[in-house]
Design a protein that fits this description.
Largest sheet of chain A: 3 strands, antiparallel
Radius of gyration of chain A: 18 Å
Strand order of the largest sheet of chain A: 1-3-2
Distance between the termini of chain A: 23 Å
Oligomer: homodimer
DNA sequence: GCCCTGAATCGAGGGGTGTCAATATAGAAG
DNA sequence: CTTCTATATTGACACCCCTCGATTCAGGGC
């Protein structure tokens, strides 16, 4: 949607509009780190996981884990809930399936 | 697999080993950019796409598009073949399905 | 109230990333 | 061989990201 380019030859190729690409890319970007992938995997393995179980599973500082969880949360991949002293994380329902559906196209 | 952490409570949570996480994260990282996502989408929409069709579809310089294609290639998501003056790109068979399968777990 | 623990935020440092203009390379055509 | 076109590479710049130590915030228990 920019230049003189879409001259018949590639009119139909633009399968993904820029807005949706921004949206999806932001979520894939959140998955683009080994630590976050493992965190997500650990959370997805259960209904709910306490941060106190996630943090000691890595050789990283507590603030670093908290930072990665924040990025996953901002990407709308996980959600958190505080209960007393502890905070529990869970996967946002359907979030991963939406990405999987895009890749399977 | 690091600390004193896996004390019964979270022994089974480590669903993803570090090596495989590195592998998958590298591919998701390549998807974590709107331009690359659109490039991949355009390539996946056909069996084969010439660079000369991809470059003019963006408001970006030719070297920038070439750079993004290189990153997608290094992530083993796409493959290229030169035929005469032109270079054609195609999606590596099964690459996207592998990622989709992980997300659908 | 005070302290203790779990988790988030702040600020800084080192490395990585997206973009460009300029240049180099590959192949075809004259 | 020379020239032209299509891609790739290089070098530079601004910006972003991962990590840490230090600090702050939230709740529970004394």
């Amino acid at each position: 949607m920019s230049k003189q380019a879409e001259s018949a030859c590639c009119a139909g190729i633009t399968a993904l509009d820029a807005a949706r690409a921004d949206d999806l890319a932001a979520q894939f970007k959140a998955l683009g780190d080994p630590v976050r992938l493992r965190l997500l995997s650990m959370i997805a393995a259960r209904d709910e996981v306490c941060v106190c179980e996630l943090t000691p599973a890595f050789d990283l500082s507590q603030p670093t884990i908290s930072h990665h969880l924040k990025l996953l949360r901002q990407a709308a991949l996980i959600d958190s809930e505080r209960r007393g002293t502890w905070v529990y994380y869970r996967v946002v329902p359907g979030a991963l399936d939406r990405l999987a559906a895009f890749l399977a196209t």
